[in-house]
Design a protein that fits this description.
The protein has about 60 residues and is an all-alpha fold. Helices cover about 55% and strands about 0% of the residues. It is extended. Keywords: DNA-binding.
């Protein structure tokens, strides 16, 4: 049986958000027709890509 790519694995986490961030996340999910989980994943991925794309300082 072939192994799944690392990107196929999911872990469950619990987090606490300030109310205004939770409301923003809810509103973005509603606007985009997606779940709050999907919006949170998108935001973290965007941040990760931004950070990893930056050139390192010599």
């Amino acid at each position: 049986m072939p192994k799944k790519p690392a990107s196929d694995y999911r872990v469950k986490i619990m987090t606490r958000l300030p109310l205004e961030l939770r409301n923003f996340l809810r509103d973005q999910a509603a606007s985009n027709g997606s779940s709050m989980n999907s919006e949170l994943i998108r935001a973290v991925r965007e941040r990760m890509e931004k950070i990893t794309a930056q050139p390192t300082q010599p």
